[in-house]
Design brief:
394 residues, alpha/beta, Cytidine Deaminase, domain 2, six-stranded mixed beta sheet, five-stranded mixed beta sheet, 15 helices, globular
Length: 394
Amino acid sequence: MKEFELKYGCNPNQKPAKIFMADGSDLPIEILNGRPGYINFLDAFNSWQLVKELQESTGQAAATSFKHVSPTSAAVGKKLSDRLKKACFVDDIEGLDDSPLACAYARARGTDRMSSFGDWIALSDECDEVTAKIIAREVSDGIIAPAYSPKALEILKGKKKGGYNIVKIDKEYVPDPVEHKQVFGITFEQGRNNFRIDADLLKNVVTKNKTIPAEAVTDLIISLITLKYTQSNSVCFAADGQAIGVGAGQQSRIHCTRLAGSKADLWHLRQSDKVLGLQFAEGVSRPDKNNIIDIYLSDEYEDVLGDDVWKKNFAVRPEPFTKEEQKAYLSKITGVSLGSDAFFPFSDNIERAKKSGVSYIAQPGGSVRDDLVIEACDKYGMAMAFTGMRLFHH
């Protein structure tokens, strides 16, 4: 296929629209089902780069959930605890433990379910039946993977009344080392960001605590590769083999950290006894459960617990999860990793990170206030590595 005509561009008024190779060669994809749009392909090609690189760097199956050209999360194929399975709504999926790819997507989708509603999915390896079964019951726009098992393809083709977008990409495709884009009719040219992110990038530990255990190294790699394909400015919290909070596209670094930290906090709180013990009313859908949990954990919890509404949401009226209780629960969290796509200009980012259990940090360094940032890390016994590499993505 030399080119593919799109219904329209970013918006319905932006026509004509198509994708093609500038050199006239065949596209490195096959569209197995559906008719992906302009934004779908932006998500597809960015998300594929992320999981391909994550798999190459860690040696593990990888998955990501994308929305509006940024990942809501990314993960590798570690098995889920029973508690995490329940929090991610996959405790009833048979064979989950036997499919690293399914575990990776269950984690990626389960991290920030509100943001992942209507996501684009990327998988590093052949989509198997178990992974397809998870995808089948989620609201999603499409998927890109290097291959699909016959059963997985059959399951996925049944989504959206047969219109689900399924894209197969050539795993061996390598783009040109120089890339171009147009803005306002003006062509930009730059070398592709082929910088490799691996454990060697984390050897320059600048804090008094020099110890970054193997599990945290993996989490920092996940965080940094996630940031490489996240709209900047961006900060990413990671733990247990997955990104647990992504703060994307903020003009201020501290706002990135606050946003990512608040999402990481929600990920932890969703695994608390109070949330896992919620008894929903019969007929409450999976997306509605996500919304209810989000409101239950917010300052507006009365919107789902009020006398006039709680019976619509719950079979048994739960007690509020007070801010004091939430703070106490989160205060016990440690071992979280944090990556930043550019240096931290102020130590306030470290103070906020501490509140979300961060113990390990990777950032480029290079701020005139590096000494103050290092001092704040030392105050809390954090280990921080300077990577020397900025990861802006626009």
